Amino acid sequence: MEYSDLIIFVMEIIGTVAFASSGAMLAIQKEMDLFGVCVLGATTSVGGGMIRDVLLGKLPPGIFGQPVYLLTALGVSVALFCLIYWKRNLFKGGFAPAYDRVMLLFDAIGLAVFTVVGINTAWGAGYHERFLPAFVGVITGVGGGLLRDVMAQEKPYIFTKHVYACASIAGALVCVLGRGILGRLGAMLAGAAAVMLIRFLAVRFRWNLPRIRGFEQTGG
Asked: How many independent structural domains does the chain possess?
């Protein structure tokens, strides 16, 4: 394994841990049982990658040939469930404040990593133009979180708050446009950094896209 491939593998594991944690945390907040926590954690971490592989015609999806990612997600979900189950006193000030901070961190890391990993997968499949790798990267980044929210009966986060999908799009553009200057690995790191920076700034300064409030459909 080359040095750059090792770094990308480490990034994938970090992203898997981050997204599995965000999925498991939402399941715990929804008071799901251990099975539900594992399913939501695994879906969040590998769901976007499965959608990506289907779009690229890579069947069966990669998680079935490389179960390390699914096993990592399940292990993280179980560990987090056990930690919170037995150490509830870690959240003396209430679960909600800690939940919001942890979800922001994990979601930002997972979104950043999987956006650029999705682009790299498209490159590896032979797609070197700009639009398709960027599109696949965004789908990989937001797909798992979208499935997580739908399964938990939450309004999808990517459609409501803090330019979530827009951060992924911006990072994807940095990655695909920067490859010629920074190389593959440098472009991926720059793209991931851009996603995380935009996410944290969006939360800090409450950046949101315009929306229509107070609209009620009246029957005719």
From this structure: 1
For 61-95, the pLDDT digits (tens) are 989 999 999 999 999 999 999 998 887 766 555 55
User: Residue 163: inside a domain, yes or no?
Assistant: yes
DSSP assignment of 71-84, as one string? HHHHHHHHHHHHHH
- 212 within domain boundaries: no
Number of Cα atoms under 13 Å in the Cβ half of residue 5 = 3
Q: Which domain holds residue 13?
A: 3-204
Rounded Cα distance, 65 and 97, in Å: 39
Q: What is the pLDDT of residue 220?
A: 44
Q: Which amino acid is at 14?
A: I
CB 106 within 8 A of CB 21: yes
219: in domain: no
Rounded mean pLDDT, 150-179: 91
| Cα–Cα distance, 9 to 35 (Å, whole number) | 27
**First vs last C-alpha separation in the chain:** 65
Total-model pTM = 0.89
